[in-house]
# Entry
Amino acid sequence: MSIAERIESWKQNPANADWYNRHYDPQHDGLRLEILADAELEALAEIGNDVAIAERLPPRTRLKSTFVTRKGLTKIIGEVAVATVITAIRAATTPADNSLPAMIAAEIAVGRLEMLSLSGGGIDLADSLTQNLILELVTADVLTLEQEGILLAACTEMAGVSVGEVSAALLPFRVNGCVGEVP
Amino acid sequence: MPNEIGRKFTGTIATVKTLKSSGGSAGWTPTSLANGSARETAKIDLGATQPAAGWTVALETKGVSAPTANLTSDVYWNASDSATAGTDNRGDAAGVDQAYPASGTLAEKLRQLTYIGSLVHSSTTTAQKQDVGVLVPTSRYGSFVVRNASGVAYSGTATDHILTLTPRIDESQ
# Structure
């Protein structure tokens, strides 16, 4: 039986389903499934030893806020690359067909990139908008994969799972806040 | 010669009160309470006349396994002017021995209660007890909310968990 089926089966009890629906938070889906997929972690979850679960889970990569200015960006991917990015994006996004939607898209891309390179301001590399922009730039061959790797490395860190995260992930299965059998 | 004021811990205006699974002044059954979860006590009547200096609040509890050192169990007070469980409560409390909160987010609801103090855990599987703070009466009735943030679930034995209120009675000598 898959984990999803196990959860559905567990929710057949109305009391379980009511508690689950009131405390389910999708941001913990990955962690929740990881714990349920491991028999040892599942056993620890049933007795409520969240400390031991957190210790056993491998550290994972997570984004950390990293604000960069043009100067900071230059340090990360190099002066030439920053200048190249500016010119390349203009060339890459110049629409061949001069259609209005394509031109608007090009102007938006250039505007976002110039915002990225503003001195004195700064942009968060870990922000989802910036992350998407980095992916777009790689797709458009403006940034190399190596440069992408450097940018992503600058805004990620390896961190262990906290006890609080484990408890939050398991809360939907702990009816009335009490530990017990999990799906 | 001026009178001296002494302090005693039981007297005619108040005696020690306990909140526990059975046989106490009010019910509280946090057996197997998960880390990150909270449980409320039943509503307690502190008495029409209370010690001016308040009550020392002590929490005794035990983990199902060793908690992480320096993590805490946090005690909050829901003051109420009504003896009826569901009437005049703070933080959406129910005045009943049950999971807290009945609805909404725990972190948000706790901010509407009065923080008394925390038991700071050591990494041991034996029972742990600490005077977590002093409750200066603001009302005759109320209930406590205890949040388990010890890292592990509480033990499954009901008698392991007790809140004790000791009156601080000032007396002129």
